[in-house]
Write a structure and sequence with these properties.
The complex is a heterodimer of chains A (325) and B (291). Chain A is mainly alpha-helical and 325 residues long. Chain A has 2 domains: 85 residues, no CATH class; 231 residues, MetI-like (MetI-like fold, Orthogonal Bundle), CATH 1.10.3720.10. Chain A has 13 helices and 2 strands. A two-stranded antiparallel sheet of chain A has the order 1-2. In chain A, helix 1 packs antiparallel against helix 12, helix 6 packs across helix 8 and helix 10 crosses helix 11. Chain A is globular. With 291 residues, chain B is an alpha/beta fold. Chain B is built from 10 helices and 10 strands. Chain B has a 6-stranded mixed β-sheet with strand order 6-7-8-3-9-10, sandwiched between helices. In chain B, helix 3 crosses helix 4. Chain B is globular, with a radius of gyration of 19 Å. At the A-B interface, helix 6, helix 9 and helix 10 of A face helix 2 and helix 3 of B.
């Protein structure tokens, strides 16, 4: 249990570190939301000063950070200057769409990658293995942006799937089932792009970890005992090969989240991506910080879940954790 | 026992020592195994690990295959234990050729042939307890929990381990203790032939001697036949009835252990003996004999 506690503590410290760096970097970035206002002769410098003061931007960085942390601990992420509304509801309305996209892509990626990686490793040198090696090499070498645009072009040209938004314009008249289907059709393209880009990496890692365990002496010993292929795979190979794959879960979550921000902009998915892009371009300070913090917390949470899963599947880690103290 | 085989000196088919009998248990002829190197991007090249190996072992005997690293002895062991499928040749276990048998047909023979690996640490599932390791062969054959537990307990006692430790993770055992667990696992299915692939290598001198003594005791108690793979002629001199010297994938010299040790003919054998003599101090400690 203490191992989990230490992981949680580390996650909390990491969250504070990310928020501090967020504040520091946004402060270091050139320009501010009020710069454009200064160019407008109808707005007096006093008004701009008063506005800056009302948002607390005239305070030193440390003071602003301390205030933000205090508010954030009460789930208040500040106020969006551009949207003139609190950041939290603004962020949440988009973040749940990003979560839907990311979690769907994550589930699909792993549901495909694990069996495919295990299959490729188990039939090393076979056609599936060769196809996986070639396909994944190709996808990894092509930038995510190119894949996204290419798929978008295909989908638009062949009119296979709807593009842009989450629902069709006339979806209000749909039944619940039809709404779900409509959502799934809109979700399909961004999920496909994310899955395709992420699967290439995960499947190679899964294949490599399974191959490593398959070559272990104890697996050969089990073969010598006459252990069936199924038992060999599920009792001897996969529990041990799962460790690196689970560790990868946290990284894949990070990859999918950062990927989703780009894919959302390309596919017109109303998630955090377009919102963060707009907020960054307009220097909407607290919205940018809130968006980054949300992504960071999602990633830290994902890694924490992966750590806890590792303990659940491998008691040796708990033991190592205890020994390390 | 082996007859007049084409690539090795003749030794008596009825040769026996140490209480062994002339009842032929295993006969290997023309064994050949190649591995393919290469990848999707590189040309695949076949590398012969064993070019041709011929030998036979009678029930209760110990045949040691010795040779330098890369001579092919471990590949022979893996083929005999059917962890690898040979490319050519016969492996006759009491007259039945198991060389090319599929997994299902091989299962009855798995009980009769068991293998003990060099590295006991890596030859067991790191997640398993001692009990799980020992009872795994019985699980495969769907024996009851009660039977499995009883047999594991008896075997732990027989190999010199306390049955109270059966629920300990194997990571809590020392190298020597793990090799004892490996022996217990191998004995679970009451095998006739134990393939010992460098099973004593990597252990300290004292543990080596203890395991060697255990092997002698187990052989006497169960009338076991050993195919002992080693590069250590000194150790082999104590345990083996027959020695086959391997070099470049072939058995280049074979015969009764004392004859090979006292009157080597092939340069590979002489080289191995020279190495063994260089480690004479160690030899004396392990075997109590001199070459």
């Amino acid at each position: 249990m203490s191992y989990i506690l230490r992981r949680v503590l580390r996650a909390i410290l990491l969250s504070f570190a990310v928020s501090a760096l967020c504040f520091l970097f946004t402060e270091m970035a050139p320009g501010s939301f009020f710069d454009e206002m200064r160019l407008n002769p109808q707005i007096s410098p006093e008004t701009i000063f008063a506005l800056r003061s009302s948002y607390g931007l005239d305070q030193p960085l440390a003071v602003r950070y301390a205030r933000w942390v205090k508010a954030a601990l009460h789930a208040d992420l500040g106020y969006s200057i551009a949207y003139n509304m609190p950041v939290r509801p603004l962020l949440w309305s988009r973040a749940k769409n990003t979560l839907l996209l990311t979690v769907s892509a994550l589930a699909l990626t792993w549901l495909i990658s694990v069996p495919l990686g295990v299959w490729a490793a188990n039939r090393r040198g076979g056609w599936v293995d060769k196809a996986v090696a070639l396909g994944s090499s190709f996808v990894i070498s092509v930038p995510e942006l190119v894949i996204a645009v290419a798929l978008l072009a295909l989908v638009v040209r062949w009119r296979i799937l709807p593009v842009g938004g989450m629902m069709s314009a006339d979806s209000d008249a749909f039944s619940t089932l039809a709404k779900v289907q409509d959502l799934a059709r809109h979700l399909a393209l961004p999920v496909l792009i994310l899955v395709l880009c992420e699967i290439a990496i995960i499947v190679r890692h899964v294949r490599a970890s399974v191959l490593e365990v398959l070559g272990a002496t104890y697996v050969q010993a089990a073969r010598g005992l006459g252990v069936s292929q199924g038992r060999l795979l599920f009792r001897h190979v996969l529990p041990v090969a799962a460790n690196p794959a689970i560790s990868l879960l946290g990284f894949s979550l990070a990859g999918l989240l950062s990927g989703s921000l780009i894919v959302e902009v390309i596919c017109g998915w109303p998630g955090l991506g377009p919102l963060l892009l707009e907020a960054t371009l307009s220097r909407d300070l607290y919205l940018v910080i809130g968006g980054i913090m949300f992504s960071a917390l999602f990633m830290i949470g994902g890694n924490l879940v992966a750590d806890i899963m590792l303990i659940a599947v491998d008691p040796r880690i708990r033991k190592e954790g205890a020994d390390a103290r | 026992m082996g007859g007049n085989l084409p690539n090795m000196p003749t030794y008596s088919p009825t040769y026996s020592s140490g209480g062994g009998s002339s009842e032929s248990l295993l006969r290997v002829t023309g064994l050949c195994k190649r591995y393919t190197r290469g990848s999707l991007w590189r040309k695949r090249v076949a590398v012969a690990a064993v070019v041709s190996a011929d030998f036979g072992i009678s029930r209760g005997q110990t045949l040691a295959l010795v040779g330098e690293s890369g001579s092919g002895k471990s590949t022979v062991a893996r083929c005999v234990a059917r962890i690898e499928r040979p490319d050519a040749g016969q492996i006759l276990m009491q007259g039945a050729d198991i060389a090319q048998l599929a997994a299902a047909a091989l299962l009855p023979f798995r009980c009769r042939i068991q293998m003990v690996f060099q590295d006991a640490v890596t030859s067991m599932n790191p997640r398993f307890s001692a009990l799980e390791v020992i009872e795994e062969p019985m699980r495969i054959r769907r024996e009851t929990v009660h039977d499995r537990r009883d047999r594991a307990r008896a075997l732990m006692i027989e190999v010199g381990l306390s049955p109270d430790w059966m629920h300990r993770s194997i990571s809590n055992f020392s190298g020597g203790q793990r090799q004892r667990i490996a022996l217990a696992r191998a004995l679970t299915m009451r095998p006739q032939l134990l393939v010992l692939d460098e099973a004593l290598t990597g252990l300290d001198v004292s543990t080596q001697a203890q395991i060697a003594n255990l092997l002698i005791d187990l052989q006497a108690a169960h009338r076991l036949t050993y195919l002992l793979i080693s590069h250590d002629l000194a150790l082999v001199a104590r345990l083996a009835d027959l020695i086959g010297v391997m070099a470049e994938g072939r058995i280049v010299e074979a015969g009764p252990a004392q004859q090979i040790v006292s009157d080597p003919e092939h340069p590979a054998t002489k080289k191995l003996l020279a190495s063994a003599k260089a480690a004479a101090g160690k030899l004396t400690r392990i075997t109590g004999a001199s070459l």
